[in-house]
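Subject: design request, 148 residues
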């Protein structure tokens, strides 16, 4: 549980799958926590739910349109040295339109869960990576990212 005195942010993160690998993004040099690897996504805006934020962020950051995703889990992590706590909503993205093309200076690459453990992911993602190593492949239960 995160410290209640810290500023809280809500984040949607996508585990974007292709052929048993997922997309990892390295934070650019002009961003906080530069150089760390992470799952693509970003902060929820005031009027958004996590699915809407995920779709918006992946369109803005990578130029892809989420077709199918499934909520997986929430993780809370305190970055006390930075004065905030993040609540991350993780989704498996199993269908999308377009080819990921980074628009914010980040480096991206497709990695297996085992390869990802060698990259230096953000501390909030450590347990997620361990759990992904236990999955044989992307989950098959899917929901539309654009409910009617």
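Subject: RE: design request

Done. Sequence follows.
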């Amino acid at each position: 549980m995160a410290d209640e005195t810290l500023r809280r942010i809500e984040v949607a993160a996508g585990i974007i799958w292709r052929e048993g690998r997922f997309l990892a993004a390295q934070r650019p040099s002009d961003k906080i926590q530069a150089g760390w690897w992470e799952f693509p996504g970003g902060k929820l805006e005031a009027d958004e739910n996590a699915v809407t934020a995920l779709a918006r962020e992946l369109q803005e950051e990578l130029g892809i349109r989420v077709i199918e995703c499934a909520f997986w889990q929430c993780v809370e992590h305190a970055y006390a040295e930075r004065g905030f706590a993040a609540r991350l909503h993780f989704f498996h993205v199993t269908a999308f339109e377009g080819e990921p093309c980074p628009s914010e200076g980040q480096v991206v690459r497709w990695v297996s869960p085992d390869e990802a453990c060698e990259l230096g992911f953000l501390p909030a993602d450590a347990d997620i990576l361990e759990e992904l190593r236990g999955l044989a492949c992307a989950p098959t239960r899917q929901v539309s990212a654009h409910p009617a």
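Strands lie at 7-18, 21-26, 37-38, 41-43, 65-79, 84-97, 107-111, 143-144.
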